[in-house]
Amino acid sequence: MKDSIGSFSLETERDGVCVVTFARPPVNAVSVSVYEDLGRLVDRVNRDTAIRVVVLTAPSDARAWCGGADLNDFVGIDVAARKRRYAFINAQLPRFYAMERPVIAAINGATIGIGMILAALCDMRIAAEDARFACPEIDYGLVAGGAALFARVNMPEGKIREMLFTGARYTARDLEPTGFFNHVVPGTEVLPRALALARQIAGKSLPSIRARKIASSRLEGQSWSEAYLDAQSLSAALTAGSDGGEGVHAFLDGRSPRYRDC
Fold first, then answer.
1. C-alpha closest to that of 165 among 150, 153, 184, 147
2. What is the 3-state secondary structure (H, E, C) of 106-159?
3. d(Cα 161, Cα 176) in Å, to the nearest integer?
């Protein structure tokens, strides 16, 4: 059965495995509209008893699994508008995290910024060995909000800080020792491995699957969310200075930023 919700297309197989494909060319950047779609996706999955497991992927020819936030959303934004944006986002991401089905991220391309957040919010992650990962917010004069979330999935604190302070890019093979991924495989094997894992889970009782997901979410708590909110508050405050806006404009203009450290 096929369906679509904005930037997401759904194809549910008879065994209950639902492949959700995120397609927003050219780089699968996340705009406010994508967060709206994400909320509708959660509602759709939660109420559909034909869906037992979700595999989240991107088209095989996409330039990225998720290319990060759509920086066009930030042009001309002020502190109040950014806080309103975060308030909306904060109503969607915890719902995705708590969606009543296990979600397997089949990461077949670059995963940047909010892409890493989405991957970390999934229950399991399978990545192409050459897929690139980064949290580049510091390069735009902003603050990445993923530190506590990455710690929740037991990434080493030193590596987390290295990523967030440098904005550097890493391959899945580079990050494999951190434990962020369940499996790192050649690109052609990502979706087949994810589907095999999904089918193994889909064979279980749906009430058991749902209960296990809910129990896992409650067990892990919400401390990441509190830290995420704090980072967002800091990032919103940076909008009052010049460097946050300069970083965004420089990226969109294809030039190096000219920071004034204010």
1. 147
2. EECCEEECHHHHHHHHCCEEEEECCCEEECHHHHHCCCCCCHHHHHHCCCCHHH
3. 16
Distance of alpha carbon 51 from alpha carbon 208, whole angstroms? 13
Q: What is the pLDDT of residues 186-239, one digit of tens each?
A: 999 999 999 999 999 999 988 889 888 887 876 655 466 765 676 677 677 767
What is the spatial distance between Cα 248 and Cα 254, in angstroms, rounded to a whole number? 10
Beta bridge partners of 56: 20, 105
Q: Which is more confident, 28 or 261? A: 28
Could you give the CA distance from residue 181 to residue 160 in angstroms, rounded to a whole number? 14
Query: Across the strands, what pairs with 66?
Result: 111
The model's pLDDT over 97-142, given as tens digits with 9 standing for 90+, comes to: 999 999 999 999 999 999 999 999 999 999 999 999 999 999 988 8
107 alpha carbon, distance to own chain's centre: 10
